[in-house]
Each structure stands twice: as structure tokens, then as C-alpha cells.
Amino acid sequence: MTTQHPWIALFRQMLLIRRFEEKVRELYTQDRIKGMLHLCIGQEAVAVGAMSVLRKDDYLVSTHRGHGHFIAKGADLRLMMAELFGKRTGYCKGKGGSMHIADIDMNHLGANGIVGEGLPIAAGAALAIKNIKQTDQVVVCFFGDGALNIGAFHEALNLAGLWKLPVVYICENNSYAISTHIKKACAIDQAAQRADSYAMPGVTVDGMGVLAVRDQVDAAVKRARNGGGPSFLVCQTYRFLGHGRNPDCSLYRTKEEEREWKQRCPIEVFRGRLLKDNIVSENDIGQMEGDIARDITASVEFAEQSPYPLPEDLEADIYA
Amino acid sequence: MREITYREALREAMQEEMRRDPAVFLMGEDIGRYGGVYSVTKGLLKEFGDKRVLDTPISEAVIAGAGTGAAAVGARPVIEIMYVNFMTFCMDQIVNQAAKMRYMFGGKIKVPLVIRTQGGAGTYCAAQHSESLEAWFTHVPGLKVVMPATPYDAKGLLKSSIRDDNVVIFIEHNLLYNRKGQVPQDEYLVPLGVADIKREGQDVTVITYSSMVSVSLEAADELAAAGISAEVIDLRTLRPLDMATILNSVQKTGRVVVCEPDCKTGGVGAEIVSQITERAFDDLDAPPVRVAGRDTPIPYSPALEKLAVPDKHEIVKAVNGLFNRKSGL
Lengths: 320, 329
Hints:
Low-confidence stretches of chain A: none
Number of domains of chain B: 2
CATH class of chain A: Alpha Beta
Low-confidence stretches of chain B: none
Number of domains of chain A: 1
Distance between the termini of chain A: 49 Å
Radius of gyration of chain A: 19 Å
Distance between the termini of chain B: 36 Å
Number of strands of chain B: 14
Mean pLDDT of chain B: 96
Order of helices and strands of chain A: HHEHHHEHEEEEHEHHH
Shape of chain B: globular
Strand content of chain A: 5-15%
CATH architecture of chain A: 3-Layer(aba) Sandwich
Largest sheet of chain A: 5 strands, parallel
Radius of gyration of chain B: 20 Å
Oligomer: heterodimer
Helix content of chain B: 25-40%
Structural class of chain A: alpha/beta
Strand order of the largest sheet of chain B: 3-2-4-5-7-6-12
Structural class of chain B: alpha/beta
Number of helices of chain A: 10
CATH topology of the largest domain in chain B: Rossmann fold
Helix content of chain A: 40-55%
CATH superfamily of the largest domain in chain B: Thiamin diphosphate (ThDP)-binding fold, Pyr/PP domains
């Protein structure tokens, strides 16, 4: 295997996220993982393409659909799975779960259960970088198309544009906020046009193509790092599964539409490209699948064997 | 000792902390060039420049959110929300984000954010600019809530708030900005979570804060003339509450009046009275009483506004009621 080729790592990350999410889905369906969680199956290229151009010390502001972002930032699967299980060994000692997973040691400022409310936080982190820390770090902030019409979106983009903050705002446009289509929510057709109001570039990106995402985010990150200010990218992607616990999408989208998008599966399409260009062989991919399966199994074992938080943990860590 | 105003004391607190720690910065509407609508931050832009004193657009949600994000990555923002009524715009960032980040994230992150705001009735500004909404914030785990009554406390508490690694809601009172008081030249801090006995007494405990402290002290003067010795406790911090000081006093006096400017229902007084009855029922010689703001929006008309918040007569009357005697008025 020509392990040096940079595309292989991109492919492997997407595959890892897909297999992790499939396992999480299975555990969730079995009620071994509780509560509310949101899978990013179908949207892997956005997370992987974006995170691949970031430095370790760059900041991530994620969403409720954030497993992929964190895995692409280099999360330890065992600590992630333990968090989803609500175990004391998880990233947040079991107190955050899927929707609030974070790790400040890795400059991950958190998934967020409130739509759109990560955008102001990202602006603030970028402000501190620019004015106080005075480093060349960059903040990448993800959000779904559902966040496009909340006040915080506009306030945050305006402030970022006004102050030329080093932040890249990435909309993962999967067309649906639960059931509401973006066309029934956004007054304009092309969300990227919103950037014009906030003095930053607005780019519509093929969110099913990991290379397209990587290239556009790379340009935006370079711009931010060099003092050029924020960017707004709209990555067109698709949530292959239902929202949350409800697998039924029939009330709001057609099988035909689903089929069309699934034919553009970011992993399948990229796999074809890698094979065609002889960058990997079927054998290589098989080996990759084996390694990933082993890692995921180990994460589940770790999570299952880990202890739950103790009663005294309930009131710990409210204040510093 | 020198005397300075509450406003000057607050300004000195920020100035000293900004000189001490380059991570401290200010952000808010009209706080730089204009010096703040109550002139609290006057002169700070000139000294510290526009990287550390930032005039923002009217965007309270992102002011609060950017404060949260900046604090999360190691800065120490002091943001100003012009009126406590405008905190409504910030509620998601305060309640769902800043206050619970540390807890949700397993205790690894610190959010050293101070949100300065001001409120209170008495300036004929009516219902959208005069309220006292402190009870909203005392209800939220993860927040600290501070309300100073004197210049000395204002300075020492704000300095402590800026050094605190948690989210502090620091609510000033607009009627106090011109109030003068003794403030030492030398540096000092007033710790959060510690009440102050503003007047010692034996017969009744008046528990109060912010603008109601001076009103309570005037009432205590009048009660003293009538032979009742009132102890006046200034809470200074509403969350965490200094229950030890409260319970010690109640043990001594056996009688309690809580005086608060905020609406009575679900207020700070309700919490204090509950805790006293739960924890010191046997010390009580009479049922605790609340003297609180009325359960109304604050009206504009001067004839009505003054009725919406307690005055000294109400406190005197309430205390006399505890002794089952008529008001000496």
C-alpha cells in the first residue's frame, strides 16, 4: 500500500466515521446507548475534508451531529464510546453524552445541543485568538442548515466580518432541519449569498466530495490564519438516515431523492476513485476495514467495562 | 480615607485588573468611545486601546456568546449588557452554554466570564429598562450572582469576579452610581459568597442587597429610635448564598425580614425564607417576612413607580409586625 498518499488518510477517516456511526446506531437501537443522538452517516466528507487541513491547536466548534467532527480531529474512540455510554471514563465523565461531547485539551469546544448557538462561541474564541492570545490559530465552526435562520447566526457572522476574526463557518447543508426543507425555511435560494451581508466570501461546496471540501476549507483556513478574516462555506450534503431515533423520513422526503443522494455516497465514490487510480487495492481496503472494526470493538469493550459515574459526581464540576 | 463614587469604584476595579492581567478585556455597547451609558468605563479605551475595550454592535446574543467563547479559550472577558432587561437576548448563551459548559464537559474547562449589567427602578424608565431580574440567574447552577450596594463592595467584588474562574453575573444598580463611599487607595478584594453585616443588632435580622441596603439601614435608624435593634445583612453575593452568616444572625435575633427590590413571587427572598424555615425553624420567634417588589412590571408614572419597590416604611412596618406592635410612625 502506498501509505504516503494523502488521500488514503482521508478515505480511512471517512470509513472510520461511517463504521463508528453504524456501531453507535446498532447500540442505540438496542438501547445500550440512551437519550438523544444524531448520526452523520452521509456527511462524512464534510467533517474529514475540513478537519484534514487544520492544525492540532486549531479550535473546533461542533454540533449535535458532531461525532464525525471529533473523530476527524483525532478523538480517542474509547473515550468517545465511553461518553456515549454515560461512563465515568468518557471525555466528559459521562455528563455530556453525544450532544455535549468536548475536550478542551484537544481544543474541541464542544458539540452543542442548541441549534446555531455555537456560532457566537466560535466568534469569541476567534476574538480571543486575535486580540488576546495573538496566535495564528483558527476556529472552525460547523452548523446545520437549520441554524441559518436563528438570530445567533446573523449576529455572529456580522461580528466576525466586522472584526475580521480568524474563523471558518461551515454550514453542513443536508437540506432538512428535522423535516423542514431549506426552501421552506430560507428566504433566499443560495445560503452562501448570506456572506455578502457580512463582508466575507461565501462559497457553495460539493459536500459529498472530500477533496472539494478539503480544498475550499484549506483556502478559508489560510485566509483566516493570514489575517484575512472569516469565510462562510455551505457544504451540500445529505443525512442518509432519519433524525434522532426516528428512522422514518417518508413524511418529508422521497425514496427517489434518497436514492439519488446515496448514489453520491462520499465513501463509495471516493473508494471508486482510489481503486481506479490504483492508490489502494481491494486488499488494502479489506485490511483497513479489519483494523477499524478492531478499534471500534475495542472502544465498545472499553465503554462496557468502564464504571458509571459515582453519586458524588452529580454535584461535582459545577464550579471551578 | 478617600471617598469615591460607586461608578468610579467599578471603573478602578476594571482598570486595576486590566493592568494586572493582559487576558482581561472589555466588550459591550457604547463602552469605549462613549464610556458606557452610565460612564462606568470612561477613559478605559484610551488607556487600553481598542483590542481590549471593544465597542460592539447592538447584538447581545453574540456579545454573551463571544464572551463565552473567549473565556473558554483562556481570555478573561468582562462584558457589559446595558440593561438587565436586555439579558433576555443573552439567555441561551448564559443558561445553556456558559453556565453549564464546565459541568457538561466533565470539569475540564473553565469559563472565567463576567457579565456586568445594571437595573432597578427609580429612574422613570418604565418596564423595559427598570427591572430587577436577579432571581432568574440565582436559579441557574453554574452561575454566581453578585449585587454590590456600596462603592467599597463594588470595587472589591468586581475585582474578585474578574479573578474568579466561573461565570459571574454582576448586577449594578443605576441609583447607586453617584453614591459616594470610602474606598482605600491600596488594593483589596472582597470575596464572593460572603455576606457583610452592615449594622449589628439584637432584635431582628434584615436581610437585603443592592439598592435596598441603604433603605434598610434608614429603616434600622428609625427602628432604633423606637427601641428595636435591627441587624442589617448585605448579602453582596446572591449565589452562592452565605447561609452561615444568615443563620448565625437568625439564631441571635429570632426574627427575619428579607428586603428585595425584585418581584416577590419566586424571588431571592423566597429562597432565603425557605432555607431559614428548613434549617432554623426552632430559632424563630415569628414567621419570616418578605418585603419585596410588587408583582407588576415597573410602571412609568412617578406616582406608581415608587409603589412598585419597597421603601423604608414598609420595612419598619414589617419589623413592627414581627413584634406584634403598631408602627411608631
